[in-house]
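In this supplementary section we document a worked example of the pipeline. Step one takes a protein sequence of length 489 as its only input; no multiple sequence alignment statistics are reported here. Step two produces a three-dimensional model, which step three serialises into structure tokens for compact storage. The input and output of this example are shown verbatim.
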Amino acid sequence: MKNFAKTIISLSAIFLFVNCSDDSSNPTKTDVPENDPTSSSSAGICSDSKSSSSSSNLSSSISSSSSGKQNLSSSSSKADVLPKDIDTTFTDFRDGQTYRVVLIGNALWFGQNLNYNAPTSTCYQDYEPNCEHYGRLYTWEVAKKACPTGWHLPSQNEYDVMLKSIIEQTSASENSSEWTEDYLGATFGWSDGITRNDSFGMALLPGGYRRTDSLYTNIGAGAYMVTSDEYRGDYSKYPYRYIYYSYIGEDNLYHMGIDDFVNSGGSYEEQYSVRCVNDSAVKNSGNYRSGPRIMETWDLSPKIEAYTGPYGEFVDERDGQVYNTVKIGDQTWMTRNINFETPNSSCYNSSDLYCDFLGRLYEDADIMQACPTGWKVPSPEDWQKLKTYAIDFSEGQAPGYVLKATTNWASGYDGGVDGVGFSLYAAGYKSGSSYYAYGYGTELYAIDGKGTASLTYVGFSGHPNDMVIGSELSDDDGDAYSIRCIQEP
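The serialised model returned by step three reads:
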């Protein structure tokens, strides 16, 4: 975030011209010390003897540098906010990070997602560089207190007012789903291939969100912004959120939509992006036009090719079956699920054809018999190391994308690229006497040295393309999952 402006590109930007006095070419600016945590944060000062006494109380003042850049620093001054001709910035005294600030209507907004490391906030896929690009993700309770002094988490109404201002200035449809020009999305960071112009400098970033099951989803596809409002119905309550996204309409054109989740709000434990808005409204903000701005460009992620080797080979002396092996980081894994027959194991749908490529499904009584000598059922720590490796290998992408096989995932569900040779199929599972989810997901065992008392599951679903290391499994008779053996250290 500190180095947000990396590449200068001629894009649409903010040029604001405001009459501060009878002589508008000579506004009065007041410089104040930066990063003072005891003062409120305001956004720029322009005053004269006629108006200063009636100015609103703002939380950051603009100080000009020799390069012409304006900086929002802490101040307790009372004045109108009048950014002029160039973008403004705000430096958060808590961690020194600098954010662009843009004026839309009468409100000053962060032009970037908040990246303050508040307790329990996360980076997408727990991968720190994703925070540098997309900002951090916050639960509703944390988000309400995350913005710096003088700024706050926007309400649903403040988002609505911002949209209304854009609609008035552009004559865009009041229904954002009819927009075919992107007025809010950043020119970078999206995976849909749409060319964006970011007319207002809002630069909404598709940072995705973190679900209640700890899975991350929709990075590159949707900007999920939590608001300060809360819905309280007769039988449910949840925080309001907005999502900004793109889709192809019936007219075969890309459309932009920004929806508030009034009827299907997010969970309190889900984590979303945060934009901060200044505590005080801006006066005399009517004159607006676009011009050059400093923007950032970066690639979403590297293109990952399917792994082609090298592979090792292991022959199970118990039944003569041959398994390819692959070294991933400092771990060595079999490249398919174990297929050694035990009394309480079975093939999917009781068909040997499935066992040939999916391996067998094991009830918990037979787990310790499955892997051959020199190999073991992975521990939760083993799985976590594999997950971390996959995320780092892909520079922050979903681990399922790296670990899943390219085939045997149902149409419309997320398969993978098999980037490290793990070749994970959607093997399904058994519950009671029935089999489920072949082609849609798979669940595998994790166990530590204490035995089945610490048995947990590892799940891969078709969507999102993620991996969850779950909680302790119960002793449900007849439930059976796959086993992927890892070599003993």
